[in-house]
Specification:
269 residues
Length: 269
């Protein structure tokens, strides 16, 4: 009788262990997607004026930064899915999610804080995630004939002097010029820049020449079409504004790997 009870208890424990293991695996793989969906629902009920950031969380096209800045006191909050195919940080077998807060606290300055974490790990106890701070300063405003020029630094702060804890690093100079072509484009923007690895880091972005084109079709102001080169690969993307409040960013890195996200903007008092 005791033997039967022992076998029964053993089988019950195995079932419970299996269910617990599967539940943890499911939550680890889907937690960030659930959070993304909740953020989208949240945006439907809060009427903020919205524009989207790039995959980096800073103002830009699809992935590359631009020399554009939004008005003083603009605040952005958002999240992006980063495809494993071209992600230099973390395990190459897992996608990642980033969460960012970006603020244009002066007419010529933008600061951003971003947290990135891998998706679907069986054990997160040894993985904190990457924390990145960025600063962007516009040194020349865009004029009728001249482009805006901006200096940016991504991931400039690290806890290790060797730079081993610094990821997604870049120090760059970028220029952006916008044009309107009547009855053809609402706006067409051109960006070109150069990034340097002057700061020590474990991995970098935008090292060398990068650039891109952003097009807003005529009578389609909510839509922006993007083609760019981020110094490593060519990307194509689109930014779509829904109900004037929700902005979705999506595209193909290297023309074959989807990355994208959502963000919203509001003005601080």
């Amino acid at each position: 009788m005791h033997v039967v009870n022992d076998h029964t208890m053993c089988a019950t424990n195995k079932v419970e262990s299996s269910i617990s293991s599967k539940l943890k695996s499911f939550m680890g793989a889907n937690f960030y997607f659930l959070l993304l969906n909740l953020l989208i629902v949240f945006l439907f009920f809060f009427p903020f004026m919205v524009r989207s950031q790039a995959l980096t969380g800073t103002t830009g096209y699809y992935n590359i930064p631009t020399a554009e800045l939004y008005p003083d006191r603009s605040m952005f909050i958002g999240t992006n899915l980063l495809n494993r195919e071209y992600k230099k940080w973390g395990r190459p077998t897992h996608d990642a999610m980033d969460f960012f807060i970006t603020n244009s606290f002066l007419p010529f300055a933008e600061v951003s804080i971003r947290f990135t974490r891998m998706i679907g790990l069986d054990d997160y106890s040894s993985t904190v995630g990457d924390r990145m701070a960025s600063v962007r300063l516009r040194v020349i405003d865009e004029g009728r004939y001249n482009p805006a020029i901006l200096i940016g630094v991504h991931s400039f702060f690290t806890t290790l002097s060797s730079g081993a804890a610094s990821h997604f690093n870049s120090t760059y100079l970028v220029a952006t010029k916008n044009f309107k072509v009547n009855h053809v484009f609402e706006n067409i923007g051109f960006t070109t820049g150069y990034g340097s690895d002057v700061l020590k880091a474990s991995d970098y972005q935008f090292i060398g020449f990068f650039g891109g084109v952003k097009i807003t079709p005529y009578h389609l102001k909510p839509v922006e079409l993007i083609v760019e080169y981020d110094a490593d690969k060519w990307n194509v993307g689109a930014r779509i504004t829904i109900l004037k409040h929700i902005v979705l960013l999506g595209g193909l890195e290297g023309f074959d790997a989807f990355s994208g996200g959502v963000s919203y903007k509001f003005l601080l008092p």
